[in-house]
């Protein structure tokens, strides 16, 4: 609505919860809710962010200073100051009084748009009444100032006074609770519980209790979705049917779809710790019940779900996952529908004609199920010619099921590189590093390329490959291959994690890359901010240093014993 209303609404949404033995605001949400989200400790959550070194450091940049000086932000802080004056205390104390028992929002899944009810439960009735009165005054004032045609009316539901603004906003206060709704039906259903006309709340839903248990003992916030209701829709039925029949969708997210097919609810979890935050989506889908066809995505006999993440010096991004293409090929007649199988085998016939001393099927069967991707800032100088933009080296590491696969891939990559040389002009060379042969293809520095490359981006790469134990490394530069060789040599075949897909992004490596190749960032600062070269360089170096304070982000997919989990975690930098 208005900026003041939005600011007050934001204040209501950033409120703390207290001890577990006090009344739960979920008891005020009607039983027919299909989605619920509860903030358990939002004050701790918000203060955790504002106290971060990364947050404090962000305020040194002109863009952030401009945002903090914007009308909307200044108005928000003016509202905070006004409330502190009127209610007689600093905002943390006031939030304890106004919403110390938590915040809960519930949505019905029956109509579009969904009726939603937000309940904020405080600990001090007098402060709640006064805060709500100030809120209503701000609504009326802003409505009059903006000359809005939305009428502000007082109505009564279940003997409780309700303020209605137009047709899409309702608010009421009863005791220590404040209610906000987007539809009349949502407010009425909530106030029936408040008036004792209805006894059963969303807390009486068995799957909600199971979702809360799955969320763990102390989440900062958590949510529940009645997925059984959603799966009754025709769109959901069509989706699950398609993923069973379409092998390409199975390859992309088949095991995730299988877990969703078996789950009656979904739990959303926000965790906070002294070292960071994590957001998880959890489904009550046991690993033991995973479809055997999903052996393409998850090992079925106790093997690791993924190999260790590779973290060479200067790492920016590292990924490790399980994908058994050998299983897919060996079971193709059972997994593929007839049409897809016919197209696949026709394409394979063509490939077999150009593959030296092997077949496509043998390559898939010889390839291992473990795959890793890594990007790192190596700082290597590949050519005397500088590309217009620095691109960090990237490497793929794939496991092998035998030496024959390694020999076949060595021959195939050499032959493919030689063939590509007619178009790229690159030349092949070999060197030995730590007892391992590295084959590299380098672009010529003189003459014009036979392909379009005005930005000279090709000079970021000198494609290389090597075989280390049961791993094939294919890298964009020989430097990243060299950095991975000692890591692969020292790890054991049994090392790894039960998690089947995981990736990490490292801000420190990104900061190193910008610091070592600042030209693109400097140019962008000059063009977007209209500043001089010296200021742009200084700002770029500050930005590179700030990035290092962000730590790293980890993303994972895990078919755990009792649940499926997709998780994204942010760990602070030091």
UniProtKB/TrEMBL annotation:
<feature type="signal peptide">
    <location>
        <begin position="1"/>
        <end position="19"/>
    </location>
</feature>
<protein>
    <recommendedName>
        <fullName>DUF3352 domain-containing protein</fullName>
    </recommendedName>
</protein>
<keyword id="KW-0732">Signal</keyword>
